[in-house]
Write a structure and sequence with these properties.
- By secondary structure, this protein is mostly beta strands.
- The chain has 1 helix and 10 strands; from the N terminus they run αββββββββββ.
- It has 2 domains: about 25 residues; about 140 residues, Galactose-binding domain-like (Jelly Rolls), CATH 2.60.120.
- It has a 5-stranded antiparallel sheet with strand order 1-4-9-6-7, with no helix packed on it. The protein has a 5-stranded antiparallel sheet with strand order 2-3-10-5-8, with no helix packed on it.
């Protein structure tokens, strides 16, 4: 077997192994969490409420991985019932613990939680909140458990600043065996 054929066979074998073992993100319940297939689908369109003026666009120049990220710009200061948002509903098992992970980059975010993630219908459970200020790409992780069979992965912008979000994933956590 030539060196090229052996190399191709090894690459194919490693690809199959990584997909079957979950390394390629096969457990991720969020569709298009890297925004590689465009925007907004399967997320709902970005919408503003109250006096919020914010935008969310596909950024093809800045990303954590791949070729795209979600770029959020909000010019409105935090005020009651003023926000921009979009969401994707995913099926989950009631009572199961899940981990939500994303990569984000921030520029002049006015407050902690200027951009945050809610996972429940009432927007009360928010496992992720970006810090205030300017920061390079960072990984953010949180956990949640819901008593219902769906989670609403809602990105919310509630204060001034810019954020880039990429590689959103939600995966079930395995029970620890002790």
């Amino acid at each position: 077997m030539s060196g090229i054929v052996r190399f191709a066979f090894l690459v194919c074998l490693l690809s199959v192994i990584s997909v079957r073992s979950g390394f390629a993100g096969s457990d991720n319940l969020v569709k298009n969490g890297g925004f590689e297939q465009g925007f907004p689908d399967p997320f709902s369109p970005w919408g503003n409420m109250g006096a919020c003026w914010s935008t969310a666009t596909l950024d093809l120049k800045t990303s954590h991985s791949g070729t795209a990220s979600l770029h959020i710009v909000n010019t409105a200061a935090r005020a009651p019932n003023d926000y921009g948002t979009m969401a994707q509903t995913i099926a989950i098992q009631p009572g199961q613990r899940y981990q939500i992970t994303l990569w984000a980059k921030g520029q002049m975010l006015a407050s902690r939680g200027a951009v945050n993630i809610a996972v429940d219908q009432a927007w009360k459970i928010r496992p992720l909140a970006l810090p205030a200020g300017t920061f390079p790409w960072q990984k953010f992780t949180g956990t949640f458990t819901l008593a219902v069979s769906s989670a609403v992965i809602r990105i919310i912008s509630e204060d001034k600043g810019e954020a880039w979000i990429d590689d959103i994933s939600v995966v079930p956590l395995k029970d620890d065996l002790y």
